[in-house]
Amino acid sequence: MTTTVPETGLLAAEDAATYAEWFACLAEPTRVRLLHAVAVAGTISVGALTEQLGISQSTCSHHVSKLAEVGFVLLHKEGTVTQVSVNTACCTGLPHAADAVMGVVARPCCPEDVPDDVTVRPLETGDWAAVRRVYAEGIATGNATFETEVPPRKSLEARWIPGHRWVAEIDGQVVGWAAASPVSNRACYSGVAETSVYVGEDFRSRGVGKALLHKQVTAADADGLWTLQTSIFPDNRASIALHYSAGFRTVGVRERIAQHHGIWRDTVLLERRRTCDDA
Prior knowledge:
Helices cover 38% and strands 26% of the residues. By secondary structure, the protein is of the alpha+beta class.
């Protein structure tokens, strides 16, 4: 959801009521443990939760029902077994609520601890085959994009802003890329761009995305782009966390925004306002 800040600067009453309901639900240690167990498992039965937490079936069912009422978890039946899964929207909603309540406005400018073995440089003509290969590996995860096939090179060249196309290398091999695209051809939005970051399947969790995002946001700041935005599937929690480290914030969850392989999916809309100066 989107937080509304009235002219008084105070949190909107409607948002405050929603957040209070969330926090009240979690003001019980067993529910916190249950939610954590479900989030880690992805999907788990009530019976397995009962055994894992060492509580009675009735106690577990009671607390699971309370979490489901607020929307933290989703329930579905498989035969006679109740399966519990985390509502991925709460993975972004909860941190955003905490930020809103605490009045957090200062966000990091860019990721820290960029790995020394990753080199980020402008995309060159000879990189396109590797870029499209990495794109295909992202598509294969099912949680990177609505695209089901890699767009043609000409389409990407026409879409991506010159000077904001980057590749990451390890030992001379292209292992990831980042690019920015204009969100509109209207002059008033000339400093607003939509960003993408992709990392090859064999090089994830090595700081490649962090290095790419660092270059992307610092180059955008230097070039006068005042807002960067990106849409990420709620399931892609690693990407959301990475973008938080670069000063992005959650604007809201766009429910059932488009179909992916015939299934309606949500996306989390994040944006980063240029923060390193008074833009």
